[in-house]
Design brief:
Porin; 2 domains; twelve-stranded antiparallel β-barrel; 1 helix; LOR_sf
Length: about 425
């Protein structure tokens, strides 16, 4: 992930990906040589140069206030540029230095605090003649920004999506957002209907449904939108050692509509590892995406081939908050209660007083068997403060719901991620059936 510390200023950071369009005025006779616009075509920055061959370039905000100035170091073997705050040349205002590698077009960026310069703080790699390059954090493979050509009539311009992750489009661009998307997936574990999954957004609106043929010889699931239109069909391959699933566009089974396939990384697994191959990856020497985690705990991470995290799945802890009177105001919060751990054979709940904001240790603990309506309440020092014993005959089975949350990162196809989650559930259901 990208580093959170600002280089120029906090006001130039955002909690989501930022798309910028940079338009050079190639034959201008004015002092302004570049214009930077946001997604709504509002001018965010200008880059100017004074009428002098030795004058530095200056980055200005929309109101023409200097933000940083770029000074080329004379007689530099590495074509070094120094960047200062505002229009200053004072060494105290130095922000960073950019140096070109001797034998290639890679640029190394060193922050002013990095006086030894043994390792760069950022690296730029790409093909500048095509106006395409990638900016990395340090010497790692963590992408913090990408720049690509954008064709516009009469102007040479290029896009600079300044987000942490490259775009991932598998199903369609209309399933992407420029910000993280939080989804809740609810599985009806004992349902006898066809609709056995529901996917909602952060506001509880239905985004997708998943229908499955329970009595089918070949396992098949259909991912539908909120209106019931088929988006993807997920089908388990017959006689597959690695339990391979194939995903097609719409409700098709035709090979020309194949989008991707998913299989277990290895036959023997203690934790879940799945490999995802796009339809175009016919050799399958390397996977295009990888899923790692513990499905038993409903917790895993989805990676792109370059190890970039594109989505995370986690179980939702049910948490109760108790307020004074009939209030919902945070100042009237008395205590909260949550499960001690995700994996439980018997009930264990932790109780935190409102004053315990760190929650490193609980103030009370509840242990027992809620199925038998028998449990004990302890103070933090293990002193028993209450006990409950109640026998209750179970006359009916209550159908439960298994709920877990998915956070999809900016510019990642979330219909694709939901499809992966459904396959993940089915593969692990098969595993639990064998245990």
């Amino acid at each position: 992930m990208a580093p959170e510390a600002p280089v120029v200023g906090n006001q130039f950071m955002a909690p989501c990906s930022v798309d910028l369009t940079i338009v050079p005025k190639m034959m201008t006779i004015s002092a302004c040589t570049f214009v930077v616009m946001d997604a709504n075509d509002n001018i965010v920055f200008k880059v100017g140069k004074f009428m002098s061959p030795l004058a530095p370039r200056i980055l200005l905000d929309a109101a023409a206030t200097p933000i940083v100035s770029f000074h080329k170091k004379s007689m530099s073997l590495h074509s070094t540029r120094k960047v200062y705050r505002g229009d200053s040349k004072d060494s105290r205002d130095l922000l960073f230095t950019v140096k070109k590698s001797l034998f290639n077009t890679t640029l190394n960026v060193f922050l002013a605090s990095n006086t030894k310069k043994e390792h760069c703080d950022f690296k730029i790699r790409g093909n500048w003649s095509e106006k395409s390059c990638t900016i990395y954090s340090g010497t790692s493979s963590n992408v913090i920004a990408q720049k690509k050509t954008k064709m516009m009539t009469g102007q040479g311009s290029y896009m600079a999506p300044a987000g942490g992750n490259p775009a991932v489009v598998v199903v369609g661009q209309h399933f992407m957002a420029p910000y993280p998307v939080d989804l809740t997936i609810v599985r009806k574990m004992l349902t006898i209907s066809e609709g056995n999954f529901g996917v909602t957004d952060a506001n509880g609106n239905i985004m997708f449904k998943v229908k499955g043929k329970l009595l089918s010889l070949r396992d098949r699931r259909i991912l539908l939108d909120a209106a019931g239109n088929p988006i993807l069909s997920l089908q388990q391959k017959i006689m597959s050692v690695h339990r391979r699933w194939e995903v097609y566009r719409g409700d098709s089974k035709d090979s020309k509509d194949l989008l991707f396939s998913v299989k277990k990384s290895s036959l023997l697994q203690f934790k879940t590892q799945l490999d995802v191959f796009l339809a175009s990856n016919t050799s399958e020497h390397h996977c295009d995406f990888k899923i790692k985690g513990s499905w038993f705990e409903r917790s895993c991470t989805i990676y792109a081939a370059n190890s970039t995290v594109i989505a995370q799945i986690m179980s939702v802890h049910r948490r109760w908050e108790v307020y004074r009177g009939d209030s919902k105001d945070s100042k009237d919060l008395l205590f909260s209660v949550k499960k001690s751990s995700l994996l439980q054979f018997k009930t264990q709940l932790d109780v935190f007083l409102a004053s315990n904001t760190s929650e490193h240790h609980c103030d009370f603990k509840i242990k027992g068997s809620w199925f038998e309506r028998s449990c004990t309440i302890y103070a933090a020092n293990s002193t028993v403060i209450a006990q409950m014993h109640r026998k209750h005959s179970v006359s009916s089975i209550v159908l439960g719901k298994d709920k877990f949350a998915v956070t999809v990162y900016p510019h990642v196809d979330y219909a694709f991620i939901v499809a992966l989650v459904v396959i993940l559930e089915e593969i692990n259901e098969d595993r639990s059936g064998e245990d």
